[in-house]
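Subject: sequence -> C-alpha cells, single chain

Hey, anyone have a minute? Need the predicted structure for the following. Not urgent.
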Amino acid sequence: MSYPGYPPQSGGYPPQAGGGYPSQQGAYPPQAGGYPPQAGGYPPQAGGYPPQAGGYPPQAGGYPPQAGGYPQQAGGTYPPQAGGYPAAAGGFPPQAGGYPGQAGGYPGQAGGFPNQAGGFPPQPGAGGYPSMPPAAGGQQGYPGGPAPGQPMPHYAGAPGGSNPPMPGYGSVPASGPHPVAKGFRGSIKDFPGADPLRDVEVLRKAMKGFGTDESAIIELLGSRSLKQRVPLVAAYKTTYGKDLFHDLKSELTGNFENLVIATLLKPAVFGASELREAIKGAGTDEACLIEILSSRTNAEILEINQVFKAEYGKTLEDSISNDTSGHFRRLLVSLCQGNRDERENVDVSLAKQDAQKLYAAGENKVGTDESQFNAILCARSKPHLRAVFNEYQQMCGRDIVKSICREMSGDVETGMVAVVKCIRNTPAYFAERLHKAMQGAGTKDRTLIRIMVSRSEKDMLDIRQEYVRTYGKSLYTHISGDTSGDYKKLLLKLCGGSD
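Reply:
Had a minute. Here:
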C-alpha cells in the first residue's frame, strides 16, 4: 500500500478489505468499526495543526492542511475530539468538576498561568492569600477552601480580615500604614568571588617580615562580610599552621588591634566576650548589658548563653545575678532568658490591656510596681510593645519613657528606658549610643567598636540616617573627627560612607 506522504513501496502489505486499514485518500486512518471517521483526516477540527507561513509545505497525501493558527482549537483545548475530553474554557483539560475549574484558579485559569489580573501574586482579596473569585458551581480559592460567602483563613501574621492590624515600626502608630520591607540595610555586603585561601595569603603577606601592611589588612577586612571573614581563622591555620589571632595581636596594637580582632569573631563569641567584660572587675557596664540583651533575637541570646558557659565556666544568668541587684537584676535575668514572644501579629485589644496595666502600675498608683513593667517589657513581642507604647500615649497623654523616669530611679530606670528606646526605634537607639560614645572628652572605644561591628550588616544605613537627623552631622564625619590612624580607616569602612 502507499502510506500518506511516503513513496509507494514494493512488496508491502496488500490492502485489506472488510474492516482493515483501507487505503484512503489523504487521511489516517478511519477504519470501519473504529473511532468515528472525521471529515478531513486527523484532526479535522477548525484550529488543528495548520501550515504556517514559512513552515513546511503540505505533502501529497500527508496530513491535510487545516486553517487557523497553532493550536487555535475551539475553546483553547487539546484536542476536542468526539468522545475525548470535553472542551473546557481556558485550560488543559479542566473538565466539569475537575481540579480546579475556577476562574483565576490553577491551572485552569482564564488567560493561562499566571496572567491573572494584577499579576501573581497577589490576587485580589481581603488580607488572605490567595482569595480568588469563585467559579460557577465551584469553590472559592484553592480546593478545600471555605464555601462561598465564608471568609478565607489568614496565615499567621497576615494583616486583614478579623485579625488586628500590626503596629507600624518606629514611632508610627499601630493604626497607621504598614511598614514597607526595606531589604538589606547594612553597609557591608558579600564581596563577589571572595576566596578564603587567597584572602589569608594577603593577610600573611601583610604581616610577614619587618613592618606590617595595615592598609592591606584594612582593605581586606573592610570589604568582606562576616560570613566571609570568620572562615579566615580556620583557613589561616590550615594553610600556615599558625593562629591568625596570635599573629595579628603580635603585629597590631591598641584600638586598631581590638577592632580587627572583633571583625573576625563569630557574633555569639563577640557578644559573650563583651558581656564578660561588662561584668567582671570593679564596676559594671550596665548600659552594655542592656544594649546587647535588648537588641538581640532569642536565637542570638541563647547562642551567647551557650558560648558564655563554655568559655567562662559559669552561666550568664549566674554572672549577672552575682554582679547586680534588685529590680535591675530581675530585668537583666528576664532578658537573658531569650524567651521573648517573636510573633509579628498584634492583638490590639491586648495592647490596650497592657497599656492600662502599665498605667496602673506606675502613674495611677502610689509607688511603682516594677514587676509589672518587667513582665510586659521582657516578654511581649517588639511589634506588640510598639502598639502598647502608642496606646499608653493616647490613654494618659504622656510618653512611656517620661512615665518611667517619673516613677523609677537608678539602674532600673536607666535599664527600662533603654529597653523601651531599643524596642521602639532600634536604629535611633544605636545612633544615640554612638553619639554618647564619642561626645565630650575621650571616646568609649569599646562601645564604638562593638556597635560598628555588630550593626554593620544589620541596620547601619538606618543608624546613619537617624544620626544625621538627630545630631545634624553624619556619623562618618563624627568618626573622622573623633578617631585617627588605621583605627579610623577601618571604622569608616564599616560605616560605609557619609550622609
